[in-house]
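Give me the fold.
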Amino acid sequence: MIDCLASETQFVEHLAPIWLALPPEARGSFAAHRSIRGKPADWGIVPTDGDPSRPVLVASYGDQKRARRLGYRRIARIEHGAGQSYHGDSRFGANASYAGGRDCHDVSLFLCPNEYSADRWQAAYPGADVEIVGCPKLDSLPRKERASPAATHPPSEVSANRDARASFDESTPPTVCISFHFDINLIPETRSAFPAYRPFLTALAKRYNVIGHGHPKGLGTIYRYLMRAGIEVVTDFAEVCRRADLYAVDNSSTLFEFASTGRPVVVLNDPGFRKDVHHGGRFWNWAGVGPQVDIPATIGDVIEQAFSEDWTARREAVLAEVYPVRSGAARLAAEALMEWAGIGQAVAA
């Protein structure tokens, strides 16, 4: 049997689909931190305490260390994002929270969304098993809820090659979600761009129907400001996917997750982000998933550009790199886990 261990809500979103894809006989405990024990219930999972004698799957460095302290000896780790690394800066490139980071020698299986992440882990830990399985979270992301008949069509039929403005009622402003990562004040690219964009959000809300979102660790500061500005905060990313016509964010895997639903995204660059420092991934190979905002005051015009120009081909080209596996990732991850754990059962349908 294989346990799962999660301490934050976003980790549950990545682990739960995999745990459910395992055959019932292979499902060990789904151990959730007491602060989020209600989150697995959204997936029909009852959290229980783990058994360190079993193999365990985690989705973060923090939970990897937690598994280590609990006495687990066989640890698998899946990325809880797009696999970003910051190896373009020697001060941060080996951070254990990111692909290829240090202090992960007790992980014997890395489950990765793409080659970028897999190559970093394999180079750092050549003796570990590394598998590209995609992102299990993608299959559970809802599409935009609409009152029009188009809402009943499969996503592939709704948006593939038409103007983005066809996806919402022209008589009302489109719903734009503005989102920011929490501030990791270590190198410029890990800092939140929220302070740079804050002065322009009130004006943006007069131009579009704006809702706000943010990383759970940084939402408190953003929430207080947006409330004062009269902007609704939507804490659940799935709800963002149900409501938004466009998603704009500074540095988060949700940029690519939202784009995978076939809708436009806008890339919010902080003025301090260094264009001459190349980490790969979001900085700067994948930044073309949507138009970039380099001058925060122009955010409204760039959003208009994202709607009016056909970004479909460019968006899909980037997504092909970020998510070479676009569906069925939970099944692939479960199969890799079963083989790693030496359990010879078929995964759940």
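Residues 141-322 form a domain with the Rossmann fold fold (CATH 3.40.50.2000).
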